[in-house]
Amino acid sequence: MRSVASICVPDGDRALIDLHAHLLPGLDDGPADDAGSLALAEHVAATGTRTIVATPHLRQDFPDVRVPELPGRVAALQALLRDRGVDLEVLVGGEVDTVWAQHQSDETLRAVSYGGRGTDLLVETPYGELPPVLEELLFRIRTRGFRVLLAHPERNPSFQRDPERLGRIVDGGVLVQVTASSLTAGKRSRSCALAHALIAEGRAHVIAGDLHSVGGRAGLAEALETTDHPRARWMVTDAPAAILAGEPLPPAPSAAAPKRRRWNLKRER
Ligand SMILES: [Fe+2]
């Protein structure tokens, strides 16, 4: 993550929305304390983000993340930001593990959906080789009434080798969130190539920071600097706004044909 002064802060009239952040202090693998959360919040606010969702890990290896506590923790952080004059709205959410979700009640899943609205869930792509049962696990979550936003599939080696598997998941109705730092990683990065390909093919719907600290990953403003594809700005404004509202995604702008051909899923094989 670069300093604020070196980042071209978007000057459009639309504030940016970040749907994936490990922002709550002393909880998962995000900031250790209030000072760290405050610094991260100040950074994202200074680079154009006005709404961010606190999405702590919800999986077995983070037992200290207790769902009933999340609204209070978010409210406490929001109060701190208000006291310090940080113009950033923080909403409740969670990054849900595919297996963890199978053992939770509908009430618990609704509580960790975006804004607690009960419509949209951020679901973490498993790490390492993907099990054949992944599609079934996602299907089970969706049949319980949730729209799934799949977090950073471009970083997974199975999808990098077989992007059409991800394409079939997307074609089946799952939304995709690519991570800002994937877009900035450079064309020699397989994550970067797949992330840009997904945008060009219209198979990615949200760009999010998945930030854990100041000085770590690139944020939304830096990601927007890597592409002139008009879908990219839609992915940090209109699309996340619709997800927060639990509404269908609005039509996305498309690029001219020559630019779409710069990144092609087939090149990733
Ligand atoms: Fe995350």
UniProtKB/TrEMBL annotation:
What InterPro entries does this protein map onto? Caps_polysacc_synth_CpsB/CapC, Pol/histidinol_Pase-like
- Where does the record place the region Disordered? 246-269
Q: Which UniProt keywords apply?
A: Hydrolase, Protein phosphatase
**Which regions form coiled coils?**
none
Bias-annotated ranges (Basic residues)? 258-269
Q: What reaction gets catalysed by this protein?
A: O-phospho-L-tyrosyl-[protein] + H2O = L-tyrosyl-[protein] + phosphate
| GO MF terms held by the record | manganese ion binding; protein tyrosine phosphatase activity
Record keyword Hydrolase present: yes
Query: Which Enzyme Commission number(s) are listed?
Result: 3.1.3.48
The entry sums up its family as follows: Belongs to the metallo-dependent hydrolases superfamily. CpsB/CapC family.
Q: What is this protein called?
A: protein-tyrosine-phosphatase
Q: Which organism is it from?
A: Solirubrobacter pauli
